[in-house]
Sequence to fold (589 residues):
Amino acid sequence: MNEQALLTTLVFVYLGVLVGVGVYAARIRQKEGGGFIAGYFLGGRGLNGFVLAMTLVATYISASSFLGGPGTAYQQGLGWVLLAMIQLPAMYLTLGILGKRFAIIARRIKAITVVDFLRERYDGNKLVVLSSAFFVVVFLVAAVVAQFIGGARLFQSVTRFDYVLSLILFSFVVMIYVTLGGFLAVVLNDSINGTIMFVGTIVLLVATVKAGGGTAAIVQQLAAKNPELLTPFGVKHFISLPWISSFWVLVCIGLLGLPQNAVRAMAYRDSRAMHSAIVIGTVVTGALMLGMHLVGVFAQAVIPKVTVTDMTIPTLALQVLPPFLAALVLAAPLAAIMSTVDSQLIYMAGTIIKDIYLNYINPSADENCLKRLSQACNILLSLLILALALKPPSLIIWVNLFAFGGLQAAFFWPLLLGLYWKRANAAGAVASQVGGVLAFVWFSAFVPRPLGLHPIVPTLLISLGSFLLVTALTQEPKCETIKKFWGYAED
Amino acid sequence: MKGKVQGDYRFRQCGKEALIMLALFVLNVVWWYGFAYGLGSRPVETYGYVLGLPDWFFYSCVLGYLVFSVLAWLAVRVFFRDIPLDDTHTAEGGDGEQ
Fold:
């Protein structure tokens, strides 16, 4: 069997496993029974520490950490690895700040989605629910389209099928297992994908260092090529100080404002699951970020003439690894994409079914009807995204980051202040969402580096400002809401 | 009301845990930023090397990764408590339900 056929076969085995997990998850769910909605969209709140950590990491880490990111590191050197390492605190920060408080309250109010949580917290205000659901769908569709394109491209580079066929195969696999197995299939596959990413990263790092003759030799080669590759500033000061120091707001702090991430913080089984997820999540995130981006830099010394930098990692893998291990590394970005889109898809479907349909259209829908609708919703969403992805734009990472920032602008403060500030009310939350998203779009379009900062910084400030101002001018939230969210303590 | 005391206890613990993670984060950023720009701003010719890597990078990114992974583990072990997440475990009559 030649190398190409072997790679293609392995990719198909991998896809087969993902679908198999979907079927398995569907079986488990049937056996366990319980409410359909909580089971299908939240896995019955039963995640253990490992699965919680892996699904959080895998959901958050997208293909850009394996393609665009290392590609830029290839051009910019160690400064870009430094930038990537800002993400180390992401997991302990997300789980730690939302904390058990979020999990406790979500159980108390039986929340399945982040919008659920916001609806209860903001007195059932319709505007809060509608604007939240709207932003979830708009931004997640954008994000998923970008990921589908990346996935299809990658699939194409491994199998040599044409783009459209790759796209269709890729999206059908995701669609099938998400539709069949729901959240449970998603988190189980995330665990598989997270493991692939972790092992693939370590294997490639070791092989690259070996191929380059050790770190010292590689670093000396980089120094000879361009000493700027060894500085924290990048080539020709590409990575400016204000920008790097504001970038962490986007990729680290703001992360807990991403609903598809935050929802995982209400899905774990018990305190201990959360404890071990904090540690596992941090270790895995750090290894992935450090490993992959460092490989990107080291690639300069091993394969000096890469023209399409997004292809640095695949090219390198095929060069320094035997075919079987190369397949593992090539599967890593595919795994990253899979595990990001599946979570986004199931989250979108959850929002549409739970937050819109069950709340406003048909509150008394029975289990069977909900099941069929949820699955239909998944299928329709996948097909819509497939259609959108047929005409691909070129730079994955920026499209992706735009959706990221938009979601953070909409959810960061309503979630955080809703959790920790008694006075926060519905009007403030809506003002914060609308103000934040408008600001983000405006800055991104017209002032991409305000005062040298990333647009997310002024965006979150404006979003906070609108929240505080409007809340101060309007009424306190209902007493019963406060009771529900802060227990019965009146002192 | 039995749920009152229990609910308070859990939320106070949650607040404490959140603050600890926030503190860890601040420390992490200071470490990461301090080593990177403290050492990395010198001219390239004067860089020292640890394990073949420029010193600023080693301390900020490699050692920082190890140190904060261990600190996260330690923080969880020392300060985090195994508290029940369901109201029914803590309060009779399901005070927290609905």
In short: Chain A touches chain B through 54 residues (CB under 8 Å). Residues 163-211 of chain A form the longest helix (49 residues). The CA atoms of residues 119 and 129 of chain A lie 6 Å apart. Chain A has a mean pLDDT of 89.
